[in-house]
């Protein structure tokens, strides 16, 4: 099935908005700048997304859907659940490797007070997807009691996302690596 120009433009807008949000958060999504990046008129964006909230919602949803696929690939490619857990921080590291960008959902979560409810819902879905995957891997690896798997998954997610924030604030990926290593030595990440 051929991709239409309309679908190409929509995808280009989503990609440009994702890059903007990973660099400057929801507040960094600007229709004029996106139009310039995509090579269309700003008014043309409204054909695909009537307003910034709808675009932000679509970007955040696509982001967690993409990450869910990445997590599934990690599970598939890993030799076991422990190996999958070892690879988990790489998702966050990859953003830093791309010009010191940050996880879109972490960035947008810091803008909680200004996010439209549908955007916030998709940002929270990112956390839910990560924590569910981590819980599943922890349970499969036999780490912790069944009662505390979800709490540990939340702690891992928060720790890794926090490491990314600290490393980004210093523009130093080595800070991220050092924090992840310390999490493996002292918890919450299994070694």
Descriptive report:
The protein is elongated. It is mostly helical and 191 residues long. It contains 10 helices and no strands. It has helices at residues 5-24, 31-38, 42-48, 52-77, 81-87, 89-97, 104-109, 117-141, 149-170, 173-186. The model has no long low-confidence stretch (mean pLDDT 93). Helix 6 (89-97) runs parallel beside helix 9 (149-170) and helix 6 packs antiparallel against helix 10. 34% of the residues are buried.
Number of helices: 10
Low-confidence stretches: none
Write down the secondary-structure element order: HHHHHHHHHH
**Biggest sheet, open or closed, and with what strands and sense?**
none
Computed over alpha carbons, the radius of gyration is 18 Å
Instruction: Tell me the total number of β-strands.
Output: 0
Q: Span between N and C termini?
A: 46 Å
